[in-house]
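Lab notebook, bench 4. Still working through the backlog of constructs that have no structural model yet. Next entry is a single chain of 191 residues. Request: give me the structure tokens for it.
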Amino acid sequence: MGAHNSLDDILEEDMHHWYTKFMKESPSGLITLFELKTILQMTGMTEEASSYVDQIFVTFDMDGDGYIDFVEYIAAISLLLKGEINQKLKWYFKLFDQDGNGKIDKQEMETIFQAIQDITRCCDVPPEEIVTLVYEKIDVHGEGELTLEEFISGARDHPDITDMLAKMMDLTNVLEIIIRGQQNNAVKLNP
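Model written out:
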């Protein structure tokens, strides 16, 4: 299909082509957590980074069956690249809420930010400082935890927090690894 300039170009390809690529990577039509970690070349990553990928998998696995199917795969990529801010904030919240209790505490957020830094190898600001800043601005009741409503309204009321979250949570590099892996496997299958 030729060279692609961006992930947007790739998403705009014919859906049949995307499906064919997905099925070549995962002939069963499903991606397991182990397969995702293999695609992302997760060997040698920290426990936090591995836990972060586990949490990404859980949030992409929208029906909770333990697999990412083609529809979930496309929906996740589309959300991350083109989703509205409210959709992205809801996804971030689900990712941060590791215990699923409907609230994000400081430790959950710090763990995710640490894992992101472990994966991206970008450590400009320590995770503790990021979390402190977020909670100073968003946790208006000083409870040390945020509900979905508090998180979304707080982020929307503070564009600097929204921008920081968008930059920290940018999974473009992860998606590029997945796409490169699919393209490399397609080349191997069709020399």
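Notes after review: The radius of gyration is 17 Å. Residues 61 and 68 are 5 Å apart (CA to CA). Flag for follow-up if needed.
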